[in-house]
Amino acid sequence: MARDVRFLASLENLIPEDTSAPIPEDSDLANIFTRLVELNPAYDQVRLLRTDGQEILRADRANEGARLVPASELQNKLLRYYVTAAARTPTGQVYFSPLDLNIEHGEIERPLKPVIRVAVKVLTDTPDSDLILVINYSANALLSQIRGLFAAGPSQKSMLVSQDGYWIVAPDPKWEWGAQLGNEAHRLQNYDPDLWRTMLNARSGKMESPEKIYTFRQVFPFHQVPELGGENGGASQTYWYIISEIDQSAWHGKSFVEGRAGQLTVLVLIALSAVVSLAFTLLIAERRED
After folding, report:
1. Could you tell me if residue 254 is left (phi over 0), alpha (psi between -120 and 50 degrees) or otherwise beta?
2. Which InterPro entries does the entry mention (predicted)?
3. pLDDT (tens digit, 9 = 90+) per residue, 212-236?
4. Same domain, 189 and 105
5. In whole angstroms, what is the distance from residue 36 CA to residue 7 CA?
6. Are residues 131 and 151 in the same domain?
7. Is 290 among the domain residues?
8. Residue 47 pairs with which residues in a beta bridge?
9. Which of 77, 110, 138 is the last residue before a domain boundary?
10. What digits encode the pLDDT tens for the residues 171-219?
11. Torsions phi, psi for 166 (to 5 deg)
12. How far, in Å, CA of 88 to CA of 188, rounded?
């Protein structure tokens, strides 16, 4: 995505000098936006905005491929944090937003759509009229793959939790995205305070209660993204927890002991942490040129 957003930014000769009005839908740039969405199934939106937050060109993913958003439906996104952050990002550097839920017209989009936004500033010849290019990457497919890896049966649950304790992947989908959905109670520290305290003091480990055994490990999904710095500095330190919860009865049961599933659970956590980190690195980071 970093390569694609930089490519679009290099097409400044296709951007009209006057950006006070939307870019025509029959323009070459509009055709390129549409084609980029069509060719990349995970690209949910490709947009060009002024630094005052106003969209002037936008292509959305649609059932039939891609759709150019009419001028009457373009939105002002000035109040969205990523617009301000991207505008402050040094020229030539790519901005990566956190993974969170997409918002349209001030409301969380339904069905829920987790996205990462990749943006770059576009300099123009007119003072105080710089632009911002944004690609929205839809993380639904990736999170579905992670849920599939986490499927473990009735006696074992696996979870992906943010560094603030909110579920990204939870045993019950209703617990997910509590921060944005206003569900303050849906946090790991409320679900199991002892486990949360243990996790705050270690990057990986194991904790037992009378009923459960937990193994956990931190994963830094963006730590290998080369562009991180400046406004992205915090993203490189973003971490999540991968957690496995197993019933004590299952852990000590015959199948677990004979099959060495206890040891395998720890190995699975290590493997999953690598999978999550690698997936985001490959999907988001720009490959370095040889």
Report:
1. alpha
2. Sensor-like_sf (IPR029151), VP0354-like_sensor_dom (IPR048760)
3. 888 898 888 776 555 554 455 445 5
4. no
5. 11
6. no
7. no
8. 58, 134
9. 138
10. 888 999 999 999 989 999 998 999 999 999 998 888 988 888 888 988 8
11. -85, 140
12. 34
Range of the domain at 226: 141-284
Local structure of residue 111 (DSSP, 8 states): S
Q: Is 72 exposed, middle or buried (0-12, 13-18, 19+ CB in 10 A)?
A: exposed
Cβ atoms of residues 177 and 98 within 8 Å: no
44: tokens are: 């949910």
CATH number at residue 182: 3.30.450.20
For the chain, the first-to-last Cα distance in angstroms comes to 18
Q: What is residue 109's DSSP assignment?
A: -
According to DSSP, the β-strands at 114-122 and 100-101 are antiparallel
Instruction: Provide the whole-model pTM.
Output: 0.83
Closest CA to 77 of 112, 43, 119, 110: 119
**Mean pLDDT, rounded, of the chain:** 82
* CA–CA dist 171, 187 (Å, integer): 12
Q: In one letter, which amino acid is 277?
A: S
Residue at token pair 């060495």: 260
Q: What are the tens digits of pLDDT across the range 61-108?
A: 998 789 999 999 999 999 999 999 999 988 878 888 888 999 999 999
Q: Looking at the structure, do residues 108 and 45 belong to the same domain, yes or no? A: yes
Instruction: Enter the tokens of residue 236.
Output: 């490189």
The tally of domains found in the chain comes to 2
